From TrEMBL:
Residue ranges of every copy of the ABC transporter domain listed in the record: 1-237
TM segment ranges: none
GO MF terms held by the record: ATP binding
Keywords, alphabetical: Amino-acid transport, ATP-binding, Nucleotide-binding, Transport
Identification of the protein by name: ATP-binding cassette domain-containing protein
Highest rank taxon of the organism: Bacteria
Species annotation: Streptacidiphilus alkalitolerans
Length: 239
């Protein structure tokens, strides 16, 4: 299958701590990929490395999303320029601008996209004039996801997208992501656990399991090796 974006031997450091130890990821185009791991595993660092919000201390980020048969090295591009290529990151924290209203967040979208955003999240209709900083965590998450899902980006990078969302709302989001992937959109989720089988969510196409900054599994979610790796990681002490 075609690749959208990739990490090659990627290393990320936060001061003296190396969070990613030479990680390789190949994200398939038009598919749903999950980066799986508990806190500290490196899944969020990998997602932010793809988006350009954290720099690499080693390795490369390769972009295939322009349809060219040859990869473009975008390691040196900042997050703003990567966003212009067609990627959107929704981080687990600080995903909205607290002083902007809901309507101001959605004003970046076209009129038809704003309509799609309110169709997906009708709860936001009564919150149009509220500043994002006054909203609950779940409401802020809906604002961030509304902009991402209704926007034009080809690549969606979503870190723990279910934070604060009620089950029916989360089910709606997953339905939208599945439809987007079916239409050719690439979705990458960073999660602590697979949601396959819950909320009617089908299994993702590809799973990377990370543990202590390294990839310990890459494959389909139904493979027995994944269950064993997840169980071992869950029982291992934190660093």
């Amino acid at each position: 299958m075609s690749v959208e974006i990739a990490l090659r031997a990627a290393r990320v450091r936060y001061g003296p701590l190396e969070a990613l130890h030479g990680v390789d990821l190949r994200i398939p185009r038009g598919r749903r990929t999950v980066l799986l791991g508990r806190n500290g595993a490196g899944r969020s660092s990998a997602l932010h490395a793809l988006a350009g919000t954290v720099p690499l201390s080693g390795g490369q980020v390769l972009w295939f999303g322009d349809g060219s048969p040859k990869a473009r090295d975008i390691t040196g591009l900042d997050a703003y320029r990567r966003a212009r290529l067609g990627m959107t990151l929704v981080p687990a924290e600080r995903a909205v601008f607290p002083t902007l209203t809901v309507a101001e967040h959605l004003s970046r979208l076209t009129a038809s996209a704003r309509g799609a955003a309110f169709d997906l999240f009708p709860e936001l209709g009564r919150l149009r004039t509220r500043s994002a900083g006054t909203l609950s965590g779940g409401e802020q998450q809906m604002v961030a996801l509304a902009v991402a899902l209704a926007g034009p980006s080809q690549l969606l990078l979503l870190d723990e997208l279910g934070r604060g969302l009620a089950a029916p709302v989360l089910a709606r989001v997953h339905e939208a992501l599945i439809a987007g992937a079916a239409a050719g959109r690439t979705v990458v989720l960073a999660e602590q656990a697979l949601r396959a089988g819950t909320l009617g969510v089908p299994a993702p196409d590809l799973v990377y399991a990370l543990h202590r900054g390294a990839v310990v599994f890459a494959g389909e979610p139904g493979e027995p090796a994944l269950a064993a790796i997840v169980a071992t990681a869950a029982s291992a002490p934190s660093r």
